[in-house]
Model the fold of this input.
Amino acid sequence: LEPTRAQDVSLLVDWLTRYGYLPPPDPAQAQLQSPAKLRDALKVMQRFAGLPETGLMDSQTVGAMRKPRCSLPDVLGAAGLVRRRRR
Amino acid sequence: YALSGSVWRKRSLTWGVRSFPQGSQLSHDKVRTLLNYALAVWGSESGLSFHEVDTQRQEPDILIDFVRAYHQDSYPFDGLGGTLAHAFFPGEHPISGDTHFDDEETWTYGVKDGEGTDLFAVAVHEFGHALGLGHSSAPSSIMRPFYQGPVGDPAKYRLSPDDLEGLQQLYGRVHQTPHRPTRRPLAPPPQPPTQLPDRNRPSVPAPDRCEGNFDAIANIRGETFFFKGPWFWRLQPSGQLVSPRPAGLHRFWEGLPVQVQMVQAAYARPGDGRILLFSGPQFWVFRDRQLDGPPRPLTELGLPPGEVVDAVFSWPSNGKTYLIRGQRYWRFDEAARRADPGYPRDLSLWEGAPPAPDDVTVSNTGDTYFFKGAHYWRFPKGSVKVEPDFPQPMGPQWLDCPASTSDPHVPKPPQATPRSRACDCKCEINR
Done:
């Protein structure tokens, strides 16, 4: 249930970022996503989809991620819609 | 509902189709008709009016394209499945309101779910974005991000309360009859797409799934099927209904005799994956959706002649098949192809189970569920003792129905078999 392979983690991060549950990567920081942040994002996704909030890649969650859907993000403001403040 | 933060300042919007789907069986006129209906769904509730224009002469507010892969915006399409469509929120930018559909989907209307993607359902969703709504998590909302199958007749479709509130938050309520177009349309007024009469479509009206009282419930290849009369609903492993509208029994289960108007029990046989549907003293075996052979008598599964079943399920804990009638049950050994001796036994051995359940099924996680009326009982994986706090109403958990415990129409759960309690008795090791 915990994604362990790098490829699985990458797919999970990609999906969560694309639909607004994770902020887009900041190229200046090259920051890795922490497992805790991933779990939190997954819980938000599960709440949105009406699934039990396990924070795990259970079968229901994987099923929801594979469903055909609209391209737009679910959480507006996180997927590229946030304006960066100039220093 | 969620608002995008932008809204059209005008009440009259133009729309037009610049490119049509290439591989779809839908004609251009049918595509335009479906899109017109999808816009009208929003217009009739908001007072907004939509006028079709020729895209070669005029740039409409809502420009519609069927395109593939990368198409000059930030949302490239990904072929069949995956992302289906998107639309841009209202605004002053040329792309605002524009709506793109993935041309590599099989766009359909009026066919069985699973044989394509219903253009009308997706269009209603995308036009919600084009008018300023974001994605909603409300179960009944068309603005849920995931495709949920066809939504029925476009002429009769109505927005859910969640969508309606979001729309009226943006554009206010309608206090008069919806605005009618005053200019001549480019084509004759669209008619609802025709559907050929279907002899497999049940003639009786579809029942309300939220009332419960199903004839049969079964986990078939990870999906839960709820049978009622000549209809059934499907719940995907994700917990979402394939469609809130039921499918016709005979449209799906090919070869099931038309005189079989209800399925009293169903289960998927673990050994060979065949699906068994029970009605009266017989059962029918299906290989996928196709009937596989003549009807079989229940006596083949060890029941006395003339007996019928309320519920059938295969228990993963021992691989045996359980057949329940009233307060008794039989057990069938699939591997040995014979009934186990010493049966029937009393259903009270399943501690807390209701008598004569509508059906019993095992979930993808291995828990056993008894259903009766509008309630369900959960037995943890491998256990024959019901969990505390059961029964519970099945509608909210299983069928996307509102919780209505105070509703006097909802029947009270039937009394379960007695639970074990402290007693002054001895248990011999050999008993």
Observations:
- Residues 1 and 59 of chain A are 8 Å apart (CA to CA).
- Confidence is low (pLDDT under 50) at residues 78-87 of chain A.
